[in-house]
Amino acid sequence: MNKIVLASGNKGKLKEFSELMADYGVEILAQSALNVAEVPETGTTFVENAIIKARNAAEVTGHAAIADDSGLEVDFLQGAPGIYSARYAGEGAKDEQNYTKLLNALDGQTQRSARFQCVLVYMRHAKDPTPIICQASWEGTIGFAPQGDNGHGYDPIFIPAEHECPAAELSSDEKNKLSHRGKALVLLIEAMKQQGIFN
Ligand code: IMP
């Protein structure tokens, strides 16, 4: 079986990638199970950070690697919190602290358009000069108060263009069909098929 290491410590992502890739005879390995330490995300773009993470996982394990980097772009804030979404309210901030800071930054604003971005990178090996890079986004607006218990991160305040309710009120199936990560995953699998990575 083809083995690919996932450069993420997130259990939800591990499950999602494992289920999708199993259909193609690929076993997804968690980088934490292979003693890969998390690498500092020193890039200034989603693409750079995803490449940094994939390269690190490939280098340490000797396997091909997949990494993702994602975040929320708010137009009124010139794209912030962007690549800093997870640490918008400070290093180690909780989801609630991050989205509360964002709601405060938009206090009194009517321009509330925003989108989630996701970049997925596949590297055949650590020195791969042409990684596969796929990107997708999910358009919406920022609500005025948190609502809903599903999902994670900014889901309680992100109202997708396709719905009247926040992403935190969608089922995971509904979210996966529309979301930045769900769409980027479809693109990545398509690109990997085209390049003959699955046998
Ligand atoms: P990462 O891709 O796990 O590094 O995610 C970066 C940050 O972006 C997360 O910690 C969340 O704050 C935010 N984020 C990314 N995707 C989503 C999503 O689907 N819903 C809510 N927040 C998200």
From TrEMBL:
The protein's required cofactor(s) are namely: Mg(2+)
Would the keyword Nucleotide-binding be found if you checked this record's keyword annotation?
Answer: yes
Name the residues annotated as catalytic in the UniProt entry.
69 (proton acceptor)
The record describes how the cofactor is bound as: Binds 1 Mg(2+) ion per subunit.
Annotated InterPro entries:
dITP/XTP_pyrophosphatase, ITPase-like_fam, RdgB/HAM1
Q: Which residues bind Mg(2+)?
A: 69
Give the binding site residues for substrate.
Answer: 8-13, 70, 152-155, 175, 180-181
Pfam family of this protein, just one? Answer: Ham1p_like
The UniProt subunit note reads as follows: Homodimer.
Q: What protein family does this chain belong to? A: Belongs to the HAM1 NTPase family.
The entry's protein name is dITP/XTP pyrophosphatase
Q: Which organism is it from?
A: Shewanella sairae
